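A.,

Following up on our hallway conversation. Structure tokens first:
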């Protein structure tokens, strides 16, 4: 797969999961969240599947932490569920939920693993969704309260903290493309969510700093935007897609400004006085996480801004139809290194869905090729890359696609919930061992 000696001492390796995708259930006093509601509405999720059971990580936490440790990893990137610890979104905490995350963090530390904590990986408490969720500026206050509660509980023992996983998914995919909860297709809702997600990030960073939580960063996702043809119209559409997806959030975080190509469409819909939040949004961070999976081929399309549409491409694809384009990872590592000179960068997600549980050659070559691009970005381009975290430890709930797509290094049998390491797990394990 690769040789650990090609990477500097101290380069960190990890695997990621998220709460709703693996934990299972409202058992233990958790409140409803908007993914429970979204999945219950026919047509939103493949087979109307939901996270009620998922991988039953809550019941099998020790087994899962042992799998991480036996793999030889340094980091486990996980998230805490807002609705599990604050069933009403704010107010009275659920003791059982807090105890679970205490045990999770302690279990990681006992095994010598670094806990990389994400506060929000998408399960917004339903009560708050009903009050407008990410469209409502009050989300800043709600999120700050949740951050404060969790910081006081696990903030002293985590290795790193990131307020929000993938602002693009939280805002655009969920409020403009309608693919994730709350499933809106509304430019005004999208514009407000795009800004509020960064505003809430800023509010949480303030809280985490105030609570002396160390190593505070942000995690953004990136998708390589390839013009479907050489035409001026397609090239322009691809630039717009790139600006919305790949430059809006880093623009806010590192340049105190949003890209012109996005303001062209969003400015009339942004919340009044949004410019005043830019200093909060741009507070210094300790690291940036890059999530990268694929490229899209973008063509101009009729209709209102952004007037574009993805079209089919010619590269080999994964189980979910995503084109495999490893060079894109190197591209974005270089881009963010220019955005934030000197800031440590981590790949915080990279991986693929591949069906065959035990013949996952495609997974091994996908990981090998992307890790090689990350290595080149570091060794040849001078990007300050400090670690690589793969998605995911386990097969899990792939949001609107349900349980079909299998992203795990470890196979999960959803009838018995039995875990079985795949070939890629063993390949990664021996790569990490060689010179350790
Ligand atoms: C990321 N899209 O999500 C998430 O952080 C994970 O929870 C998820 O399982 C993983 O990637 C694999 O999909 C995305 O439709 C989900 O463009 C969907 C999209 C992008 C990212």
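Then the amino acids I'd put at each of the 436 positions:
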């Amino acid at each position: 797969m690769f040789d650990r000696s090609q990477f500097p001492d101290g380069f960190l390796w990890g695997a990621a999961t998220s709460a709703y995708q693996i934990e299972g259930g409202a058992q233990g006093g958790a409140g409803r969240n908007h993914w429970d509601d979204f999945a219950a509405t026919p047509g939103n999720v493949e087979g109307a599947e939901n996270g009620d059971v998922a991988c039953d990580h809550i019941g099998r936490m020790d087994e899962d932490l042992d799998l991480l440790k036996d793999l030889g990893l340094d980091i486990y990137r996980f998230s805490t569920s807002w609705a599990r610890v604050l069933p009403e979104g704010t107010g009275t905490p659920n003791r059982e939920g807090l105890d679970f995350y205490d045990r999770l963090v302690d279990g990681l530390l006992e095994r010598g693993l670094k806990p990389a904590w994400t506060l929000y990986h998408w399960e917004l408490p339903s009560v708050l969704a009903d009050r407008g969720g990410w469209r409502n500026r009050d989300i800043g206050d709600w999120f700050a309260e949740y951050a404060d509660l969790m910081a006081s509980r696990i903030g002293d023992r985590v290795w790193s903290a990131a307020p929000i996983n993938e602002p693009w998914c939280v805002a655009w995919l969920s409020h403009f493309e309608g693919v994730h909860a709350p499933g809106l297709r509304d430019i005004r809702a999208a514009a407000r969510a795009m800004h509020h997600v960064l505003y809430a990030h800023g509010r949480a960073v303030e809280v985490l700093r105030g609570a002396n939580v160390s190593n505070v960063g942000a995690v953004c996702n990136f998708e390589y935007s390839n013009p479907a043809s050489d035409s001026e119209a397609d090239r322009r559409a691809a630039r717009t897609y790139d600006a919305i997806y790949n430059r809006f959030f880093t623009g806010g975080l590192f340049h105190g400004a949003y890209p012109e190509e996005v303001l062209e469409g969003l400015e009339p819909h942004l919340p009044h006085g949004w410019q005043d939040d830019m200093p909060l949004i741009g507070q210094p961070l300790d690291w940036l996480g890059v999530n990268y999976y694929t490229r899209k081929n973008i063509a101009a399309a009729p209709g209102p801004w952004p007037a574009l549409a993805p079209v089919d491409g010619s590269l080999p694809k994964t189980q979910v139809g995503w084109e495999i384009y490893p060079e894109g990872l190197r591209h974005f590592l270089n881009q963010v290194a220019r955005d934030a000179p000197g800031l440590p960068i981590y790949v915080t997600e990279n991986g693929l869905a591949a069906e065959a549980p035990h013949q996952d050659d495609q997974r091994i070559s996908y990981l090998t090729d992307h890790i090689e691009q990350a290595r080149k970005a570091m060794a040849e381009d001078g990007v300050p890359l400090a670690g690589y975290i793969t998605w995911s430890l386990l097969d899990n709930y792939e949001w609107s696609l349900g349980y079909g797509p299998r992203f795990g290094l470890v196979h999960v049998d959803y009838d018995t919930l039995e875990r079985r390491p795949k070939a890629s797990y063993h390949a990664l394990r021996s790569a990490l061992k060689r010179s350790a």
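The domain at 4-433 is CATH 3.20.20.80 (TIM Barrel). Curious whether your intuition agrees with the design.

B.
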